[in-house]
Amino acid sequence: MRQVAIIGIGQTKIDEQWDKSLREIGGDAAFAAMQDAGIEKVDSLFIGNMLSSIVSGQNQLGTFFSDWIGLWKQEAVKIEAACGSGAAAFRSALMAVASGDTDSALVVGVEKMTDKAGHEITAALATAADADYEVEQGVTFVGLNALVMRRYMHEFGWKHKDFAPFSINAHANAMHNPYARLHEKINLEKFENSSMVATPINLMDASPIGDGAAAAIIVPAETVTRKPKIVVAASASATDTIAVHSRKDPLFLQAAYLSSRRAYDMAGVTPADIDLFELHDAFSIMAALSLEASGFAERGQGVRLALENRISPQGDVPVCTRGGLKARGHPVGATGMYQIVEVVQQLRGECGQTQVDGARIGMAQNIGGSGATILTHILKQEE
Amino acid sequence: MRQVAIIGIGQTKIDEQWDKSLREIGGDAAFAAMQDAGIEKVDSLFIGNMLSSIVSGQNQLGTFFSDWIGLWKQEAVKIEAACGSGAAAFRSALMAVASGDTDSALVVGVEKMTDKAGHEITAALATAADADYEVEQGVTFVGLNALVMRRYMHEFGWKHKDFAPFSINAHANAMHNPYARLHEKINLEKFENSSMVATPINLMDASPIGDGAAAAIIVPAETVTRKPKIVVAASASATDTIAVHSRKDPLFLQAAYLSSRRAYDMAGVTPADIDLFELHDAFSIMAALSLEASGFAERGQGVRLALENRISPQGDVPVCTRGGLKARGHPVGATGMYQIVEVVQQLRGECGQTQVDGARIGMAQNIGGSGATILTHILKQEE
Question: Which residues pair with A50 in a beta bridge?
Answer without folding.
Answer: none
